[in-house]
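Duplicate of #3305? Posting structure anyway:
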């Protein structure tokens, strides 16, 4: 036992201690390496590919997906433009004015309807009702201007349709 107190014994004990620490360090590294390989196997699959080729495949797949997304966005932008053009031609403003055309107290049977799109183009339909007849008149508007003179009731229908308080079908 007194051999351990000599210089050679102390060096041997120190070497054994360093060896134990190195062994523990090697075990820890082996466990970490095994975990990394398991993670690599999960990413790479069958293990027949290396990490670089797998990264290249992923990069190629991302590039293809980005190109597909960009093409889809362009397609949807074109479609949205087409839809917006079609919606602009739909009825956006409308109003109905009822009146008694002949002042006969007949219950406001005559009416004028303004139907306009977002460019304020469209038609004004007027139905003039008398006791023994009814007439229908149609006048066209382009950009808010009538091609034929509007009656006061027809102009009122257009004004009501374009007024800000009008809860029209416009978005």
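Output from current build:
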């Amino acid at each position: 036992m007194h051999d351990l107190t000599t210089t050679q014994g102390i060096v041997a004990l120190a070497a054994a201690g360093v060896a134990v620490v190195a062994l523990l360090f090697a075990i820890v590294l082996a466990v970490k390496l095994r975990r990394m390989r398991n993670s690599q196997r999960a990413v790479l699959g069958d293990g027949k590919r290396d990490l670089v080729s797998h990264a290249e495949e992923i990069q190629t797949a991302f590039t293809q997906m980005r190109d597909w997304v960009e093409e889809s966005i362009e397609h949807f932008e074109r479609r949205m433009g087409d839809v917006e053009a079609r919606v602009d031609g739909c009825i956006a403003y409308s109003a109905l004015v009822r009146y008694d055309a002949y002042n006969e107290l007949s219950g406001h049977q005559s009416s004028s309807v303004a139907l306009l799109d977002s460019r304020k183009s469209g038609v004004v339909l007027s139905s003039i009702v008398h006791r023994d007849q009814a007439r229908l008149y149609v006048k066209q508007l382009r950009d808010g201007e009538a091609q034929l003179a509007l009656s006061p009731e027809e102009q009122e229908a257009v004004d009501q349709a374009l007024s800000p308080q009008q809860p029209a079908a416009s978005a």
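Confirmed duplicate; merging threads. The chain has three helices and five strands. The beta strands are 93-99, 110-116, 122-130, 133-142, 145-146.
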